[in-house]
Structure formats: structure tokens, C-alpha cells
């Protein structure tokens, strides 16, 4: 009798959960329709000239995407800074996502990530001589940089592709190879935050996080998915990982060896490539995964310390962005000694498309090309697989 009651109860619970999930999908679908309609209207207002885009007397290179989540903007920004440094005095303009402050603020190496954002602070710590600025209003940010730093000759606008108030000289759009956009949906049902037809405004595409097994056919498929205008170029990159580095300095510490126990802790947009990379070199025994830009708490550190006590010889591995958020933290010495971060860099996949540097400089110096919008047929073709 008790067994029958238990089975009946389980069936009722399963049915209720199924009904709830179906209702949530319906709500998410309706919200996606509304979100898409708002985005379409916003772009139309710019296309009709009701809303105005601003051009500036200084080259602006925009790094962006049409999806939420990690596509590799930070390593791309680092690569661009190093690449353009011999040719220009480069400043970085970012929104400073996740910061508790508002308005225009110049990033200093002594800042806390909560005041300027983890990604801008990471860039400042690596490029101390460059001007790094956070400002939600990109037009105001560029104007202030021009006024307060006349020595700056080029601005890299991080995560600004959807901000049409600024007319960038070059639009670089990033696409995560592990999360194709042709089968994605608009927010909140999927990860698309902008219309696929907006890809026609890109000058350069970078397909990031490519696997070692990517074939010429795979690359050709990506070319066909992304390019709608003859002069658009598509490049392919992968992440290079160096040996892990200690987060805190100690005069004496044990040597780290590949294959030893590791505990992963991260709060980034797409942790899967990071996890897979670490798992190829270490014996990962536990994980703590959080949302992007996560603010680590004392309770999180207690949980991590408890996991470490189960594996006292393990190392705790995180990304550089995570490490910035723990800079200056007061923690037990055993935990501090165990904490390491994974330095990464971006490299281009070998092949015929290794002319990125020359192409980018050519685009910066080129007279403005008119961006030909997609025809309605093009838009239908691109969005046919992006149902909401």
C-alpha cells in the first residue's frame, strides 16, 4: 500500500514539474518575442535617422558579439593592445560590467575590482602604461578620453558592438566556436542579445576557442555562416595556456606537477573550455562553478577550504579574471598557498588567414566603407534557423 502511494505521489510530482517547465517555456518564448521586437525597433530608429550615431576624429576599434556569455573578449583585447602598441597610443574603453560605481572612471592599478570591474582591472594590471577607462555612456567616455588624454591616438571599445551611438572605424565580432549562433535563440529563451542580421555590420570576425581538430571544411562552414559582404574577413583562434601561476607570493612553496590533484573554482561566462583544458593536465577532484563576474563570499571560501582539507596536496586553479576578484583577500595560509591561476593568451590557427595584423591596420587606415545592410532575403536566410 505504501509503495503504491509513493509511486502515485512520484507521478503527481513529475506531472506538476512537467507542467511548470512547459509554462516557463511559454513565458520565455513570449518574452523573447517582446525582446526581439524592442531590438528591431531600436535598430530601425537608427536606420531611419531618428537616433543618431556619432563619429569621432580618432579611430575607434570595437570588440563585440551578439550573444551573452564568454566569447573571449578579454584575451582579444589583450592581443589588440600588444599588436597596436607599436603603431598607436591605445586606450581601452569598457562599460565595467559588475562594478558598483557609475559614470566615467579611469582605472588605476590600486583599484578594487568592485569599483571598476574585473576585466578592466585585469587589463590595467597587464598594461600599466595604457589608459583604461570605464563608462556606461560610450560617447561620454570617448569625449572625456579625447579631452583628458590628447596623447591617445586610438580607442579600443570593449563589448560595444550593440551600442550604435558610436560609429566605430572597425567592428570586430567574436563568435564562440563551442556555441554556434545558427541554432541559438533570442534572450531569455537563448543567448542572442542582438539580431543575426547585425553581423553585416562587422568588418572582421574572429571565431574563438577553436579545437585542435578543426578542419578546413569546418572553417569553410564558418565562412559561409558569417560572411555576407565580400570584404568581411573570418579568422580562427584558440586559447594557449601557460603553466599555472601562484595567486599569492610565498618565499617557499611546493613544486606543482602536472597530474596532481586539483580543485577548480571559477565564475566566468563559459567555463567549459577552461575546465576541459585543466582536466587534460591535472587530476580534477572537485569543482566550484559560479556565474560570470561572481562576487566570491566568505561562505564560498569556507566551502573551498573544506574541499581542500579533503585533498591537502591539491592545488586550487582558477582563471586570471577570478584571481583579480580575490586579490588582497585574507584567507587561511594553507588555502592561499594552494591558490593558482591559469594565464592564457590568444593565438591564430595556422593556415591562410594569418594576415590579421595587416588586415586590421589596413581597415583602421582605410577610408570609411559604407556597410551594405542585408536584403530582406539575406535576413530571412540568416535567421531561418534562429526561431524563438
Descriptive overview:
With 388 residues, the protein is of the alpha/beta class. Helix content is 37%, strand content 18%. Strand 10, helix 7 and strand 11 form a beta-alpha-beta unit. The two termini are 46 Å apart. The C terminus is likely disordered.
Q: Could you spell the SSE succession in H and E letters?
A: HEHEEHHEHEEEHEEEHEHEHHEEHH
Strand share of the residues?
15-25%
Predict the CATH topology of the domain at 60-88 and 153-240 and 347-383: Rossmann fold
Portion of residues in helices?
25-40%
Mean residue pLDDT: 88
Parts with pLDDT < 50 across at least 5 consecutive residues: 370-388
Q: How large is the radius of gyration?
A: 23 Å
Fold topology:
Elements: H1 2-47, E1 60-64, H2 73-84, E2 90-94, E3 105-106, H3 113-116, H4 118-126, E4 131-134, H5 138-148, E5 154-158, E6 170-176, E7 204-208, H6 216-226, E8 233-241, E9 245-246, E10 261-266, H7 272-279, E11 283-289, H8 298-310, E12 315-319, H9 320-325, H10 333-338, E13 339-342, E14 344-348, H11 356-365, H12 376-383
Parallel strand pairs: 1-5, 1-6, 2-4, 2-5, 6-7, 7-8, 10-11, 10-12, 12-13
Antiparallel strand pairs: 3-4, 8-14, 9-13
Q: How do you describe this structure in short?
A:
With 388 residues, this protein is an alpha/beta fold. Helices cover 37% and strands 18% of the residues.
